[in-house]
Amino acid sequence: MLIAQITDLHVRPSGTPAYRVVEVNTLLARALATLRTLDPRPDALILSGDLTDCGLASEYALLRRMLEPLAMPVYLIPGNHDRRGPLRDAFAGWPTLGDDPVFVDFVADHGPLRLIGVDSVVPGHGHGALCERRLSRLRATLAEAADRPTLLALHHPPFACGIEHMDAIRLLDGAAELAAIVADNPQIERVLCGHHHRPIQARWAGTLAQVAPSVAHQVEYRLDPGADGLFVMEPPAFLVHAWIEGTGVVTHQVYVERYDGPYPFVLDPDYPGGA
Questions:
Q1: Any residues with CB less than 8 A from the CB of 72 and at least 6 apart, and which?
Q2: What is the band of 40 on the pLDDT scale with cuts at 50, 70, 90?
Q3: Which residue segments constitute the domains of the chain, with CATH numbers given?
């Protein structure tokens, strides 16, 4: 069982780069092309927020057209750059869209895994929050399948990572309550996040919390206090979470761009044991 995770797409209207620099639509097209070439192909795809850059109807319409050719279920949650109304309108009839009248979330079972997506958006703000209604729904959903290994996705990371300007807009309200829920549910194999535009991992609430890199631009690695919030064009990538019998969930980072290789490992004759 393979579950791909793509995050922070920041789709813009056709022909319009993000921040006047980042050709986000081209970068997403490349990421989806790479996803389609994987063998074996993932069984499902999670989009963990910031699907668009401005939450415009035209952005969501373009995103839907780009996703429709994928031969796998696509589950999505919003990020702080998204707007629920235009998202719902553009994805009306999308088979995996959750049925909550307020929040955009999902629950699905794939093989041995349960996939849960939680909407952590605070409209008009960069930080995330989980109100009691969302937390209660999560508790109930987890209780329905307490023995099923689970991937829990939300856009805003619930932990501090040391990049100050991103920590200021992480999951703030409801983070402690979420930690208690996760600690009480050891079937949660991963907490999957986006938002920070960097590959980041932390041991959190008794499990592994993980931020996927963006398939567009990355946030600059700066752990010095007071550093400006800037972005860099480091290699785009996404994650594939594999269920391995006898091990559990194993996560691989897949780079989007093409690089030299593959080459065979040819041992030098001087290598111990070499021919």
A1: 4, 41, 42, 43, 44, 45
A2: very high
A3: 2-255 (3.60.21.10)
